[in-house]
């Protein structure tokens, strides 16, 4: 692992697959319990969790797992069937912030991670 932060991916810095998995596994129960988000998701959350682990792996600079299995992410398009409001984007990011805290991700890394997710979250907003 390269100690120079500028050349090390966020994926590596956060601890790779095991930590990303713990993050996503802490995140979805919060999503399911959230009144704005929970109703949008299927009861069987496992398949969504697995796709999210694959997607965030590549989004944070790791191997291209999502694309290899599911093709081009087209994430905004994939969210079009669901009513994504600004309030829901806020809620999604809050769940991620809480999940990062719950798994004990260092504050500096959690801050970088949240900053990276903010742009896509608001980009997926597709209704008022
Ligand atoms: C802005 C608020 C967001 C809402 C309300 C939302 C909601 C959803 C919903 C309802 C699904 C479909 C679940 C199903 O399979 O039935 C989904 C899938 C997914 N979301 Fe989001 N999402 C949001 C933000 C994000 C962000 C910021 C990312 C990553 C940067 C993301 C990544 C994904 C991925 C990877 C999937 C699986 C796509 C697939 O089916 O292949 N989402 N999301």
Automatic annotation (TrEMBL):
GO terms for molecular function: heme binding; metal ion binding; oxygen binding; oxygen carrier activity. It comes from the Bacteria. Keywords: Heme, Iron, Metal-binding, Transport. InterPro entries: GlbO/GLB3-like (IPR044203), Globin-like_sf (IPR009050), Globin/Proto (IPR012292), Hemoglobin_trunc (IPR001486). The keyword Cytoplasm does not apply. The keyword Transport applies. PANTHER family: TWO-ON-TWO HEMOGLOBIN-3 (PTHR47366). Belongs to the truncated hemoglobin family. Group II subfamily. This is Globin. It comes from Paenibacillus chitinolyticus.
